[in-house]
Structures are given as C-alpha cells and as structure tokens.
Amino acid sequence: MQTFSLFDVIYVETMGGPGTSTRTLSYNLYYEGLVNYNIGYASAIGWIMIIIVAIIINVFIISAFKGKEL
C-alpha cells in the first residue's frame, strides 16, 4: 500500500531514473499524463491503481472480520 503513495520521494531524489528502474505506478501516472501528455493512458493507470487498492482493502476487511458477527 505504501508504494501507491511513494511519488514525492522518487520524484525529488531520482525523477524515475536511472532509466526507468525506480518508477512506481504513481510516478508512471504522472509521467505519462503530464510529461508525455498521454492522458488516456494515465487515466487507465489511475483506474488500475484504484482497482488494486480496492481489492487489497477488501481482502483486509474480510480477513479482519472473519468469524465475527456484524
């Protein structure tokens, strides 16, 4: 979950380099949307991030309430 919010550290320290070795999804979203002006691709990356986070949250919620009565 922490890697989804790791944009600022990567941008300040390495700007995604050397090459593309330190790019995360959040940095790639910024790079494709605001640097390359690939708005559709950046939007797709954003939606994929939302879906991944929603799946992870659902797994945590289900495991936290497993065996408990709501």
TrEMBL record:
Any one Gene Ontology cellular component term annotated for this protein: plasma membrane
Membrane topology: Multi-pass membrane protein
Membrane-crossing segments per the record: 39-65
Family matches, as Gene3D superfamilies: MetI-like (1.10.3720.10)
Keywords for this protein: Cell membrane, Membrane, Transmembrane, Transmembrane helix, Transport
Top-rank taxon, per record: Bacteria
SUPFAM superfamilies: MetI-like
Coiled coil: none
Subcellular location per the Swiss-Prot or TrEMBL entry: Cell membrane
Protein name: Sugar ABC transporter permease
